[in-house]
Design goal:
The N and C termini lie far apart (about 65 Å). The protein has about 375 residues and is α/β, with parallel strands linked by helices. The protein has a seven-stranded parallel β-sheet with strand order 3-2-1-4-5-6-11, sandwiched between helices. Strands 7-10 form a two-stranded parallel ribbon. Strand 1, helix 1 and strand 2 form a beta-alpha-beta unit.
Length: about 375
């Protein structure tokens, strides 16, 4: 190119992030703002942070979506939201419907790509049939056939595929393992849940008992950092190699909880003598710690914490489900690496950086100082 030639300006990109206040959505907004995107954040209240335009809409009300989105013309959609229901049949109706109605309400928009977050329940089955029946061998690969069990992830995918064919955009599906990231009031927050459990251990002189199965304690596993998930979603949305494909997304390292649990305990200030692995049947956090939830308000007051409602911090049930699987869970990342996505995270660092941030935000207390 000669000096007289000028580089054409980049095509403006506007992202609509659905679920922007969640673990994945928060990391996505950070990533998009850092890269100079215009960002719309859809939520029921329509609140938004600096540099982001809030869009108030109810994902379960068609007219609410149509009205709220009529004036907006996003080029890219990042769908990270879901709503847990009592049965999988209800999950399918509600969560599949939210994808369908959201994309239908954007029929007027110049959509180029829609990225959908799902997870490893694609391979393991839904909560009510979790890891039951025939489950593919690990590591999980994207070309595994769907399970015969009904699954709301499949319903979301099918709505995405239908809308893409109808409206002419490309798509990507991102199958994460348990996501480690920053959020408050989230129903799937293992990092903050473990930090709260450690706080109760330290404050009430309790044992720090791994809540999961012996298979999880001893087997190999992996996890997903929210920032890495955000990077992959943006990459797939803007690189032709990411178009019209499902991708697994995990950090790239593997570990055993029997190694990780004591290391996280040490970072959280738990005395090594209190750290316990599983003995026989799992001991879920819900059974261990629900009885002590009433102590949190006093702990929060004594340490000057900003959230006195423990239910906005700890999601015992979800961490119990993830760590209670009767099998190892390892995920293959070859597909996206061959396509050009090469980012990586070290899981222990992802946890400890997150714990440090929660302390800095005064959501959990500083680690207690132990005598030498």
């Amino acid at each position: 190119m000669s000096e007289l030639q000028q580089t054409a300006p980049a095509e403006p990109r506007t992202a609509l992030v659905v679920g922007a206040s969640g673990i994945t959505g928060t990391a996505l907004v950070d990533q998009l703002l850092d890269e100079g995107w215009e960002v719309l954040a859809l939520s029921r209240g329509g609140s938004a942070r600096t540099g982001v335009t809030g869009v108030a809409a109810n994902l379960r009300e068609v007219e609410s979506l149509r009205t709220a989105l009529a004036e907006h013309r996003p080029t890219h959609v990042f769908f990270t939201a879901w709503q847990r229901q009592d049965t999988e049949a209800e999950n399918i109706t509600v969560n599949g419907g939210m994808v369908r109605d959201l994309l239908a309400a954007l029929a007027h928009a110049p959509l180029q790509h829609v990225a959908l977050v799902t997870g490893l329940k694609h391979y393991l089955g839904p909560f009510e049939a979790y890891a039951q029946g025939k489950v593919p061998d690990t590591p999980f690969h994207e070309d595994e056939p769907r399970l015969e069990t009904p699954n709301f992830y499949y319903a979301q995918e099918d709505e995405l595929f239908a809308a893409a064919e109808r409206q002419g955009f490309t798509w990507s599906v991102h199958r994460s393992h348990t996501v480690i990231g920053y959020a408050v009031g989230n129903a799937m927050n293992m990092g903050l849940t473990i930090a709260v459990a450690a706080t109760l251990t330290n404050e009430l002189d309790l044992p720090f008992v791994f809540p999961g199965s012996e298979a999880q304690w001893n087997g190999l596993t992996d996890m997903t950092d929210a920032g890495l998930l955000a990077e992959q979603m943006v990459w797939a949305s803007t690189d032709p190699a990411g178009a019209d494909e499902p991708f697994n997304i995990v950090n790239g390292d593997v570990f055993r909880w029997r190694w990780m649990w004591p290391r996280l305990a040490a970072h959280l200030g738990v005395d090594a003598a209190r750290v316990q692995g599983p003995e026989g049947e799992p001991q879920p956090f819900e059974e261990q710690l629900t009885r002590y939830e009433g102590a949190w308000a006093d702990i929060a007051e004594r340490h000057g914490l900003v959230e006195a409602d423990i239910t906005r911090l700890a999601s015992w049930w979800h961490t119990d489900a993830d760590l209670g699987r009767p099998m190892e869970v390892v995920t293959d990342m070859s597909k996206s690496r061959e396509a050009g996505f090469l980012s990586y995270r070290r899981t222990e660092r992802a946890f400890t950086d997150l714990f440090d941030r929660y302390r800095a935000e005064r959501l959990v207390p500083p680690a207690p100082v132990r005598a030498a």
